[in-house]
Amino acid sequence: MQAVTDGLALLPYGNGVHCDSEGARRPLVHKLVGERVLPRTYCTDDGVGLLYRGQTFAGAFTEIPGKGGYVVDLDGTGEVYEERIEPELLA
User: Fold this and answer.
1) Which of 27, 29, 58, 71: CA 20 to 30 A from 36?
2) Number of structural domains, the chain?
3) Cα separation of 46 and 75, whole Å?
4) How buried is 3 (Cβ within 10 angstroms: 0-12 exposed, 13-18 middle, 19+ buried)?
């Protein structure tokens, strides 16, 4: 896998997908955020979509119970952390 650092230049964040189905993806995102190759990065399990309003993260959505979204960033000391984003379950 290779990091894409410019995407479509629509958002100032990184994006990681398939966190639950590609075992190497999550550690790679953590490594790249830690090395500052990627900025704050929003990640998703398969079947999860993210919504942005302008450049502001507005929520996560899924039809599959148990799936999640995640934000990976650096804390104040420069350590990588991951925070789960609980998606809204769609009917």
Assistant:
1) 58
2) 1
3) 26
4) middle
Answer whether residue 8 is part of any domain: no
Confidence grade of residue 2 (pLDDT, cut at 50, 70, 90): low
Kindly state whether residue 2 falls inside one of the protein's structural domains.
no
Nearest-angstrom CA–CA distance, 54 and 80: 26
Distance CA 81, CA 88 (A): 22
Q: Which amino acid is at 39?
A: P
pLDDT tens digits for range 46-86 = 999 999 999 999 999 999 999 999 999 999 999 999 999 99
pTM: 0.91
Eight-state DSSP code of residue 44: E
Range of the domain at 27: 14-89
